[in-house]
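Q: What residues go here?
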């Protein structure tokens, strides 16, 4: 049985600026330009089609479910109409989209002034359809004015406004990235500066939102009371992942933790998992003496090749993260599936 409302959106035609596009045309572009034969799920499809229809939507979907397609496919199809602004805290993710699509650009602290000027020029010329920025960029008045000026001079509109990892606008994420706390206010300020006749559609995305967080997010963006967001536009995908858990093990000495890590991973290798799910673990090795963290990815099946002198060794050894840690000797392991 199809998800409620999906049939209606499949029957619609969407404005592309130079004509109307059908659902069949959307699928054709999905395959030709994004290399996907079809959508991953009905939730992903509904999220994309509602965004394409110019609606505000709140997507709560698991990591890997394809939420990012909501701010890639619609802007590409409607590139003659508007420019999509995406706020994300993850530089690596932003750079990944930038490198994959020449019509996606990013602005953060690592982007030089010369590069930023080039991005504004490309937006004016209609060559950039998606702009990804770090949340700290939103508090910059110069950035806001240049964004608005570039979009207007290009003869397009701004929208949708996308906030990835939106759970960070709540108390849950305020310590992680303080500027996220003010993201809703900054986006509202951009709307005021634009003088938009109607609210700019917003796309809120996260993989983490219980009922309390969900209600707080809706309140922060004015989607309660008179500005309520329809329940049909809150897309809740299957989030529970029983095969994922976190464990913290305190060790008496630095030497002891190597044995603890090995035994821990060997135990995980015996845990049953659904068919087709690969067993992996992220293990954080806190060194009390050096004050740094060694991070490695290791498959539990290969735990027997763990060697003290190499810390954690598997098919690939992840980069070491030079971060300050407490002087407590402990192992933190975060198993996950992919």
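A:
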């Amino acid at each position: 049985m199809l998800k409620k409302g999906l049939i209606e959106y499949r029957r619609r035609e969407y404005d592309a600026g130079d004509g109307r596009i059908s659902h069949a045309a959307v699928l054709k572009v999905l395959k030709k330009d994004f290399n996907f034969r079809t959508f991953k799920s009905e939730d992903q499809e509904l999220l994309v089609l509602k965004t394409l229809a110019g609606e505000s939507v709140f997507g709560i979907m698991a990591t890997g479910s394809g939420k990012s397609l909501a701010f890639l496919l619609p802007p590409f199809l409607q590139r003659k109409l508007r420019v999509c602004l995406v706020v994300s805290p993850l530089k690596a993710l932003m750079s990944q989209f930038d490198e994959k699509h020449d019509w996606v650009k990013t602005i953060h602290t690592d982007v030089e002034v010369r590069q930023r000027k080039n991005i504004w020029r490309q937006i004016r010329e209609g060559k950039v359809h998606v702009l990804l920025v770090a949340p700290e960029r939103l508090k910059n008045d110069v950035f806001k004015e240049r964004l608005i000026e570039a979009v207007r001079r290009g003869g397009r509109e701004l929208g949708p406004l996308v906030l990835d990892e939106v759970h960070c606008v709540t108390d849950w994420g305020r310590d992680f990235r303080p500027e996220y706390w003010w993201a809703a206010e900054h986006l509202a300020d951009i709307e005021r500066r634009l003088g938009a006749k109607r609210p700019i559609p917003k796309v809120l995305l996260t993989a983490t939102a219980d009922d309390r967080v969900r209600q707080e997010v809706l309140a922060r963006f004015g989607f309660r009371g008179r500005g309520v967001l329809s329940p049909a536009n809150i897309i809740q995908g299957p989030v529970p992942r029983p095969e994922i858990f976190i464990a913290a093990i305190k060790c008496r000495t630095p030497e002891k933790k190597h044995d603890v890590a090995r035994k821990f991973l060997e135990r995980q290798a015996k845990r049953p998992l659904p068919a087709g799910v690969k067993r992996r673990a992220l293990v954080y090795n806190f060194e009390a003496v050096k004050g740094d963290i060694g991070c490695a990815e290791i498959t539990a099946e290969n735990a027997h090749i763990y060697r003290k002198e190499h810390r954690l060794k598997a098919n690939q050894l992840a980069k070491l993260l030079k971060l300050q840690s407490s002087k407590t000797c402990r192992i933190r392991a975060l198993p996950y599936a992919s």
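A: Context that may help when evaluating the design: Confidence is low (pLDDT under 50) at residues 284-338. The two ends are 27 Å apart (CA to CA).
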